[in-house]
Amino acid sequence: MKKYNTAKSKELFFETKKYLVDGVSSSFHKADNEEYPVCMTHGKGSHLYGVDGNDYIDYVAGFGPMILGYAPDVINEAVTKQLAKGSQFSAPTEDLCRLAKKLTEIIPCAEMVSFQSSGTEANMHAWRVARAYTGKMKIVKFEGQYHGWADEQKVTIGAESIDDLGPREKVNKLMPTAGQRVSTADDLIIAPWNDVDVLEKILREQGDEIAAVLMEPYMCDEGPILPKPGFLSTAKELCRQHNVLLIFDEVITGFRLSLGGAQQYFGVTPDMAVFGKAIAGGISLSMICGSREIMSAGHPSGTFNATPIAVAASLATIGELEKPGTYEKMDAIGKRLTDGILDIGKKHGIKVYANHHNAICQMQIGMDRAPLDFRDCLQNVNREAYDRFYLLARDYGVRLTSGRGRIYISTAHTEADIDRTLEVFDYILPLSVK
To answer: How far, in Å, are 146, 184, 188, 271, 413 from residue 281 at the CA level?
Structure first.
């Protein structure tokens, strides 16, 4: 199997570092264990193309937005048509009304919506609305779950070991970014996800001060980790008992697990939800949604909230995802991939876990079962092997997310993509596990 040459990417990256902080526009664009990232020229469908002339089967999907693949004709046409009319009006449009109405029809918890531009902004707004509505200040969030990079949000999103996290009953507030104000975490309560007993104790003892419990309903940012049977419904009932709002952060799961998000997929409706990434198929757009009463507690400002371009892209994306058989096709592609990963693990005698959930797949090296929680992943997932696997996959034409086993499927992925991917995985998995 021929290894890709990426010398031009390396040269371009180090030239860019002279002018751009760290040489990339987001810390997500270069893995910690990479000397340099591959620089891309363009993408089409399920493939990206690098400056070195290499072709990559892509499972990063722009970190989630590209649910229709790269440069889909339907979005290109919608955006081009809108560009001819104007990109920004600072005024409502008929399409804005159409989109807001459509979202309330397809998302279970949505009676009203409010638009922002990014997942970080949407979470900031959701927290503020929850506090305004309840008159309480504290927020429960869970270890390992990412809700944005603002000071208050980027707390205990990762850890090197269980010891870093501290006891389950009182998780440490880890603030890893230089310049973060420690005081912004004063109103946060950090808990282990998937642990009903700890959540019940927190709500029983501090429910009168807690505005909301915030969670990824399928923990994708680290892991990924599925909710234990009954965890989501029990969390909802506990929140109801203690007059605390339940917020699902569906920035990742929204439109990927189903058109109505994880809440539709798992059959548990939260009080509020945050959506982003795939909502507009690659154009910047996010939103929060909930009941009319809750949503009326606050309204955001912003120059680029739901621009006509983003609205056009979102309507086009939803139109494609609504077509019969779309999710069934992505789930079948995901099954082909994850079944193949499991077979490769058995062939080489290497512990691997893989599973598929419509447009999201997961893979963990070092385990042959589903991880239970973040601590289980820290203790049992072979992260060093996955880091090597990530770099080797890149070297042989498959692009994965770094540092975690999250794999994004799009409507553009084909059986041929999967078969080629499995050929690469079969070659590199034994090289990754030392």
So the answer is: 21, 33, 32, 25, 15
Q: Which of 76, 47, 75, 46 is nearest to 321 (CA)?
A: 75
Task: Give me 241's structure tokens.
Answer: 């008992």
Nearest residue to 406 via CA among 289, 260, 256, 274? 256
pTM to 2 decimals? Answer: 0.95
Do 142 and 14 lie in one domain? The reply is: no
| 8 A C-beta contact, residue 260 and residue 292 | no
Q: Please give the Cα distance from 363 to 383 (Å, whole number).
A: 11
333 & 376 share domain: yes
160 pLDDT tier (thresholds 50, 70, 90): confident
Cα separation of 380 and 242, whole Å?
35
Give the span between the Cα atoms of 109 and 270, in whole angstroms.
6
Tell me what pLDDT residue 56 has.
Answer: 98
Same domain membership, residue 174 and residue 92: yes
Confidence band for 300, pLDDT divided at 50, 70 and 90: confident
Among candidate residues 297, 321, 345, the one where a domain is terminated? 321
Number of domains in the chain: 2
Burial of 300 (0-12, 13-18, 19+ CB in 10 A): middle
Assess whether 30 and 159 both reside in one domain.
no
Are 67 and 79 in a shared domain?
A: no
Distance, in Å, from the CA atom of 404 to the CA atom of 224, rounded to the nearest integer, reads 7
Shared-domain flag, residues 60 and 99: no
Instruction: List all residues 6 or more positions away from 20 whose beta carbon is below 8 Å from its beta carbon.
Output: none
261 and 331 assigned to the same domain: no
Distance CA 2, CA 105 (A): 49
In a domain, 395, yes or no: yes
User: In the numeric block, which tokens belong to residue 80?
Assistant: 């081009």
Does residue 126 form part of some domain? yes
In the chain, the amino acid numbered 160 is E
**Residue 359 in tokens:** 């447009």
What radius of gyration do the chain's Cα atoms show?
A: 21
Q: Which residues are catalytic?
A: 146, 249, 277
